[in-house]
Structures are given as C-alpha cells and as structure tokens.
Design a protein that fits this description.
Order of helices and strands: HHHHHHHH
Helix content: over 70%
Strand content: under 5%
Shape: flat
Structural class: mainly alpha
Radius of gyration: 22 Å
Number of helices: 8
Number of strands: 0
C-alpha cells in the first residue's frame, strides 16, 4: 500500500469520526428546537440562536464528512504531494510506539478542542446572558481547568512522542 492510500484511509477514518460527532449533536439540536418559552422573549431568542448555531455546526459537519468520505484520494494527493507510488516501509518497534503516541495525542486533542470550544461558549454566554445562565459553578471551572490539562497532555503526546518512547523503552529494558 502506498503512502497516498494510507493517508486516504486516515482521511476516511476522520470522516467517520466527524460524522459520529455530528450525530452526537442531534439530541441537543432537537432539545433547543423544541423548547417553547411563552414567558420571556429574551429566553426564546437565546435558545433560538443556540439552536441555529447547532444546526449550522451539524450541516457543516455533515457536509465536511461527506466531502472527506467521497474524495479521500484527492485530499491525500494534496497532503502527500511527492509520493509517486512510493511504498510504505516496515516500521521498527520504536517508530510504531512513537506513531501510536501521536495518534493518541491527535485523538485526545480532538476531544480537548471540542471541550475547549464548549467551555469558551459557556463562559461567553454566562457573561452576556448572566440573568439567564447565572455564574459558572465551581465544578464548571474545574472542568475548564481539566480541559486545559487534557489539551496540554495531548500536545505533549504529539510533540514529545519520541522522548516518551525512549523513556518507556528505557524502563522496559531495566525491567526485562
């Protein structure tokens, strides 16, 4: 399998992950769309705006995942411009472990970025619509801090994968 085919498979896997994320947003959209507030126009406008934003995110996610699914080779050729049918060589254990850490880092960063966007939206909404949401609770601030820790660890896994691999292999060598 060539480099372009490997990247195309990864693009398709990312399309599946994006589709799953988009589908996960459907209950939130239905919840905000179905809410009927007769008592306050401000509350209704707030939830209508939020429902519209969720709808746009869902449409964008669906369109992007469909594009990635149907055109993975085109995207792969742009990402790997000089592959020329070059085959992927076998990797030694060190390289496999390092790549596994990078993949874990990308996986964790995906969820950390989604959580970061969520908490950024909640902070902005709590400031702008203080009368509707009220201040953020202590547990919300703890979750915000944990999101930053999660993002830091994901970046560490991505950019320090070689060092982590050497450290693990060093301790593994001592144990065996």
């Amino acid at each position: 399998m060539g480099k372009i085919q490997v990247v195309a498979v990864i693009v398709r896997l990312f399309a599946i992950a994006l589709l799953v994320y988009t589908i996960r947003q459907t209950p939130d959209f239905v919840l905000f769309y179905k809410i009927d507030f007769d008592s306050s126009i401000d509350i209704a406008a707030f939830y209508e705006t939020r429902a519209f934003a969720l709808l746009m995110i869902m449409i964008l996610g669906l369109a992007l995942s469909l594009f990635l699914w149907f055109f993975p080779l085109t995207i792969a050729r742009r990402l790997v411009p000089n592959a020329n049918g070059e085959e992927v060589r076998k990797w030694d254990n060190d390289t496999q472990l390092s790549v596994a850490f990078i993949i874990l880092g990308v996986y964790f960063s995906y969820f950390a970025i989604v959580d970061l966007l969520y908490w950024a939206m909640m902070v902005v909404l709590s400031i702008r619509h203080h009368d509707l949401l009220g201040p953020l609770e202590v547990e919300d601030w703890v979750n915000i801090c944990l999101t930053f820790v999660e993002l830091f660890l994901a970046v560490l896994l991505i950019f320090r994968s070689r060092g982590i691999t050497r450290l693990i292999l060093k301790f593994r060598g001592r144990l065996t």
